[in-house]
């Protein structure tokens, strides 16, 4: 009986046991925070790329060039930010492409999360963004016509 009481009161090694039991949970929590940070960072970069793309589209002189400029600018902005899209969709809506009208660029970037496999998360997430800008009222359009 005395031996049993002494064993129950003996706390040697309990810290090591607690650390062993808590370490996996702490590591999973840390990886989850990294995952959330990666998703938030990708979203911020896609938002910025959409704004840059719509600005480039409004500076173009015709609708064909505006769409090409929007796609090129979005791709370049994401590459420079270090975001690798497994699939990038750039949609440009030009509303007639005339001074005073609006241009809207919608981006969808599928970002890979394969390097965070310890969490067992799906392999990708899609960050989307949309930006709108007015085509300058006092700017001319190529050929003097609206395309």
From TrEMBL:
Name-wise, this protein is Flp pilus assembly protein TadG
Ranges for domain TadE-like come to 13-55
A Pfam family the protein falls into: TadE
